[in-house]
Automatic annotation (TrEMBL):
Positions of the UniProt region annotated as Disordered: 198-218
The keyword Transmembrane helix appears for this protein: yes
Name of the protein in question: DUF3667 domain-containing protein
Keyword Membrane: yes
Residues annotated as transmembrane: 86-104, 272-292, 304-330, 336-358, 379-399
Length: 400
């Protein structure tokens, strides 16, 4: 009664209703004004953050360790102390893909430009040879390996130049070893013979390669699908040409352009993944509705199950990725941490299907045989749908 009497005679500044507490029962506006000292704003901010943190503490551990617990709590009406299903899934989706993107960038940075490994030569066999015949045989083996790489016809000019320099280094190492063994070194003509040939072969293929390069640079035939409108066909044609341009730049461009195209395609793929998953969540709920049609549950109930299931999978993906990144960082300093984190990743991967199966059993209250059967069919259908949609999303992302 004390709180009620303290607001007697006060009216809401927004709608004019008589106030019965700190918030208007008509429009919800607070009785407190926004113009207040700075320390009051800091106090409210801290209170809000602590409240959110409290909900995180109550939400994330059961989400990871108690299959179906949050869903059953939500169905029972106990929702205030937990983060809402959509918000939980949304935040974990963005966070997991962001961290996974960072991990992919670390791996991609280790890949050389143009998608080809840099040509390296190994002169250890030449240096370990004990006779001139072994030196010449080791040299010939290395030269044959370089020639096979050239014969693939896919090496860009900068890698061909590395192959030419590497071949010259091998011949010089062979001459040094021959001199150490007291044998006559190879002539200067033989030293220059193969590098010259290495530059002639790409030149002979210059014309057809230029034609391929021109064709892959965006001059493909327009896409025509009879049952699609012209606007859709034009959009598909533009995407196909942009995809060809990005891929051509990545495979054939100079190192700077190739690295830029590679990063552009990776960023495009990851920008397409969150919207794709938002589409797949209601699809997963439809599958649950179809397989549990006789349980007489509303579609919204299946959607809550789908949201919590995907939130758990995103949380697992986040933890697996963080464990992998941490393992990569700690392994050079403490090898045992790499093995421990590897076991943790394996346990999380195995926990995902186990968790989803137990969750399905607890939420829908069916026997184990029927639960296993429906879990298998739902998982099989969803896996192939998800694979198809992710492939389309990847292609569209690489076409940006």
């Amino acid at each position: 009664m004390k709180q009620l009497t303290s607001h007697e005679g006060l009216h809401c500044a927004n709608c004019g209703a008589a106030m019965q507490g700190e918030f208007c029962h008509e429009c919800g506006q607070s009785i407190h004004g926004v113009l207040k000292p700075m320390h009051h704003m800091v106090e409210e901010t801290v209170e809000t953050v602590l409240h959110i943190d409290g909900r995180i503490v109550h939400t994330l551990p059961p989400l990871l360790l108690k299959p179906g617990f949050l869903t059953l709590e939500y169905f029972a009406g106990r929702r205030v102390r937990y983060i809402a299903p959509f918000r939980l899934m949304f935040v974990l989706c963005l966070l997991s893909f962001f961290v996974f993107h960072l991990a992919i960038d670390q791996v991609a940075d280790k890949l050389p430009a143009n998608g080809h490994p840099l040509v390296s030569v190994d002169s250890s066999a030449i240096e370990a040879a004990t006779s001139p015949a072994e030196v010449r045989k080791a040299l010939q083996d290395e030269l044959d390996g370089l020639q096979r790489a050239r014969d693939t016809g896919v090496l860009p000019p900068n890698v061909l130049e590395q192959a030419r320099v590497g071949e010259q280094e091998l011949r010089q190492a062979a001459n040094q070893r021959l001199a150490a063994l007291g044998a006559a070194p190879m002539s200067a003509a033989s030293l220059a013979a193969s590098p010259a040939a290495a530059t002639v072969k790409p030149a002979s293929d210059a014309k057809p390669r230029d034609a391929k390069r021109k064709a892959s640079g965006g001059t493909s035939e327009p896409i025509r699908i009879a049952w699609l409108p012209d606007v859709a066909n034009a959009r598909l044609t533009a995407l196909a040409r942009q995809f060809q341009k990005n891929w051509h730049t990545f495979k054939r461009g100079d190192p700077a352009a190739s690295a830029e195209a590679k990063q552009r395609m990776i960023n495009g793929v990851f920008s397409a993944l969150p919207p794709t998953m938002f589409v797949m969540i209601p699809v997963f709920a439809i599958l649950l509705k179809l397989f549990y049609v006789f349980r007489r549950r509303l579609y919204m109930e299946h959607l809550i199950v789908a949201l919590h299931s995907h939130a758990f999978m995103f949380l697992s993906l986040l933890l697996i990725t963080l464990a992998g990144m941490l393992s990569t960082w700690l392994r050079p300093h403490a090898a045992w941490t790499g093995y421990a984190l590897g076991w943790l990743q394996a346990a999380l991967i195995l926990w995902i299907p186990t968790y989803l199966l137990i969750m399905q059993k607890r939420v829908y209250h069916q026997g184990w045989p029927m639960t296993l059967l429906k879990f298998w069919f739902v998982g099989w259908c969803y896996f192939w749908l998800l694979t198809l949609v992710l492939m389309v999303a990847a292609v569209l992302g690489m076409a940006r």
